[in-house]
């Protein structure tokens, strides 16, 4: 099964002001190729976002096989890794995101709050 995803490079200068205006969660999912874990993580993340954020999110899937420098820049040491870039503070969770309750708790994903606090 081939998955389609977009590799996004965001200008670090424009990222904060753009996302603050749009009030969208920015999530980066780091993977390495189209493995079962990568596909599972993408599907789980999309499901959680659609359920909890309903259009108030932007997912960037970054394949480290294609662009390893992005993983280095963000100090990614394991894959798959999900990074919440906005709202701040930045948060990380490693794994295929199949433990929905853990993902919700770790990222403070209550769907009603964009500040990242409970």
Protein described:
Strand 3 and strand 4 (91-94) form a beta hairpin. The protein is an alpha+beta fold. The protein has helices at 12-22, 36-52, 68-73, 100-106; strands at 25-31, 57-63, 81-86, 91-94. The chain starts with 11 loop residues before the first helix and ends in a 12-residue tail after the last helix.
Count of alpha/pi helices? 4
Low-confidence stretches: 6-17, 114-118
N to C succession of SSEs: HEHEHEEH
Helix content: 25-40%
Question: Mind sketching the topology for me?
Answer:
Elements: H1 12-22, E1 25-31, H2 36-52, E2 57-63, H3 68-73, E3 81-86, E4 91-94, H4 100-106
Parallel strand pairs: 1-2
Antiparallel strand pairs: 1-3, 3-4
TL;DR of this structure?
The chain has four helices and four strands. The chain has helices at residues 12-22, 36-52, 68-73, 100-106; strands at residues 25-31, 57-63, 81-86, 91-94.
